[in-house]
Amino acid sequence: MARQRRKGVGPWPDGALLGRREEIATLDRSVAAAREGDSRVLVVAGAAGVGKSALLEHVARSADDMRVLRAAGVESEMELAFAALHQLCMPLLDRLQRLPGPQCAALQTVFGVRAGPAPDRFLVGLAVLSLMSDAAEERPVLCVVDDAQWLDRASAQVLGFVARRLLAERIVVLFGTRRPGHELRGLPEVEITGLSAPDSRALLESASPAPLDEHVRDRIVAESDGNPLALLELPRGLTVTQMAGGFGLLQAGALPGHIEESFLSRVESLPADSRRLLLVAAAEPTGDPTLVRRAVELLGMTQARAMANGTDGLLTVDARVTFRHPLVRSAVYRAADPADRRAVHSALAAVTDARTDPDRRAWHLASAAIEPDDAVAAELEHSADRAQARGGLTAAAAFLQRAVELTADPARRTDRALSAARASVAAGAFGPALELLALAETAELDEFGRARIDLLRAEAAFAQRHGSDAPPLLLRAARTLEPLDARLARDTYLDAWSAALFAGSSATAGDLHEVSAAAAAAPRPEGPVRAGDLLLDALALLFTDGRDTAVPMLERAASAFAADEVTGEEVLRWGWLATAAAASAWDFELCLATALRQVDVARQAGALAVLAVGVNVLEQVAALAGDFGTATSLEAEADAVREATGTHVAHYGALVLAALRGRESEALPLVDATIAEATAEGEGTAVQYARWARSVVLNALGRYDEALDAARAAADDMPELFVSAWALAELVEAASRSGDERGTAEALERLRAHVRGSQGPWGLGVEARSRGLAGDGGDAFREAVEYFRGTRLRPDLARTHLVYGEWLRRRGRRSEARTQLRIAHDLFVSIGMEAFAARTRRELRAVGAAVPGRGAVPAGDELTAQERQIALMVREGMTNPEIAARLFLSPRTVEWHLRRVFGKLSISSRRQLRSALAPDGIVTLPARPRGAAEPSMG
């Protein structure tokens, strides 16, 4: 049977492009779009050998007008932090100094150019985005990342972050992977499947050294499922007799293994020196030909002789050492005798420079070890320290885990196991962390060792989810630590308080009462009193000595967190809790000051996981001030940070904003979704927030019976802190409107207990308004108006004018009622409190007043949340690079959004934004000094 070759089939990799017209067209369109400034990202996914690498190589060869950046995951390098990122960015390192200072420092640190504290990995991602965007200003950039399933975790996280933020740059990023991992999930995907039967037959015949029996050919085509690598490589190992006969070549679902076996059979047919060369190359993942040559010589042979004996095309030694396919590397390494592998790693360790590449040398030494070796374990420990300093938490954990295995001394092994567990928790590898803790528990531990285990278990529980599991674990750890390390014990008590606050009513043990009592009785550490100490004492007093005693301490503690003297570490760790302390003391100015401080410190430090919480808190403060524009912008930023970091934070800020805005179709579905998710997670405080939000919306809509149930549920929830007090105010309003006099009186009495000790206008104003609703009438309402006048609390002021006007109408004082209701309506419309504005219009009709329209839409309301946020920043004088750094975008993407803003607002310059947008933005205002006069906002 004569063989026919189809034109264009050719050898690998071109043969793998046979039948790929549609996939090639998709990739080519993406490259063309990127050339025009429309960034594209594609994940090219498919089974091993299906032709992903050939497609990526085709695109790279075709992009001669673009700067091509390449990286490839290597299975043996998955534990080396930022290894793939270094490959990709190396050609751009001369541009580092053009980046903003923090971004430049972050990349210099992770690449080992400079020493410094470990940067936040998402700050590293922002730096890579800026670096690529800067390069793309000169010429379009093509990033090709192959074998992404083997990327080290740090590189995968950064590249996933970058891919999700590309919009208007001349950049295209192509990932090749067997299946998208967590970091790439959700990105646009092109699935590469097997070739069609006709194309498979053509490719198989092109690669067969002799004519194939028709039945054998068809069986191979069917069983290979059109996999190009199988079709090209498997026939190379067949004899003429096999080609002419029938046999079962493959089993369904086992194709990659059979391809490896095919490569391995070719390896086994090579001379011994050639096999040893392949094993050295497989164990040396950087592809450095000098290292491979020196290691081969150290093993008693020469590379030239090994290459002269031939490698059957499986290995190429040029500027880099490359395998025909990654499956060749894995087949060679996995099939090698363990003793041969250890010998090769020993040789590679010997030829790897201990000064320039100490971590890879340590890894080779560890792979060469056959029994415990304290010297190698110490080297791995040093490598872990360096990895942690670069932000490579996963790599640090891997080094320490291997160090544990190589440590002979039991006490030292236990200590390293605990260090490895801590690194694993920090890296989010909770399974390995718990295994290491179980290993440590088998040793003879002192009290401090057992306390460390308890603490790490608690931290793992709290890091996985802010639910009900963590509080009792943290409480137990803190109690155990008391006689051993008083400072660490108090810090752990404060973390336990945080965990108990998140858990709320879901906490079955270790609730706020129990944590507070234990913290109050704990011994004091020596040394100066820190802001964290003040905060723990103040919060504990709430549940041990009552509000009268606690309020002055709460204000003192919150003031400490707003002051310059507090350490950045404390602000990052507990700043949001200081805002909760200020809210518990009804001090709105301190709420604003502490929230601003944490966001500012988190931004400067690049601590994005903390920023996800801080921006969420600040959004609540902005919404309570009636600054819905800023709150909306902060919500967009919170969503961006949450999505970028994967941080699980309930939508507290969005709930406050939605409640006050009052759009039923938006607010109530958010409430229901939050309750469902938070209940499943054991995050009780989020459930309490959601129930309070429901009560606000229903009160605004005038559905008081429904509001009564929601408010009572929120008020009765634990903990009885500021959200409970807010709910009691809603309960007073709903109960009084529903004719429930007893319920009104009981709710008012409970609210008074919450306000007791507070001297600020926020709490006193809410209490006075509630007294008015409960029956005190005009005097109480006027008192509340005076409390709120001159504060930032415009929603509370507007609601007070509304209920005062309603009270006047019911007593027939129509003229006075019209005055109050018009003030309320103007405020509601200017703020954007739509449901309350509609309720006010109904009241105005009832007093025979001319009912105003719904009010003009404020300039900028048609902007998206992100566009409005960018517009506000431009109005504040920020440059595009500064905005890009804040919002995790590139400067070019900021410019793209800004053009859309100009078009929507019908303006043409940045200067015109000052008049096009209403002046708001409490985020930009410094906290008012205590006791200073506040201009009226009413």
Automatic annotation (TrEMBL):
Q: Where is the HTH luxR-type domain?
A: 856-921
Molecular function in Gene Ontology: ATP binding
Q: Which UniProt keywords apply?
A: ATP-binding, Nucleotide-binding
Q: One of this protein's Pfam families, by short name?
A: AAA_16
Q: Check the record and name the InterPro entries matching this protein.
A: AAA_16, P-loop_NTPase, Sig_transdc_resp-reg_C-effctor, TPR-like_helical_dom_sf, Tscrpt_reg_LuxR_C, WH-like_DNA-bd_sf
Q: Which PANTHER family match?
A: TESTICULAR SOLUBLE ADENYLYL CYCLASE, TRANSCRIPTIONAL ACTIVATOR DOMAIN
UniProt-recorded name of the protein? ATP-binding protein
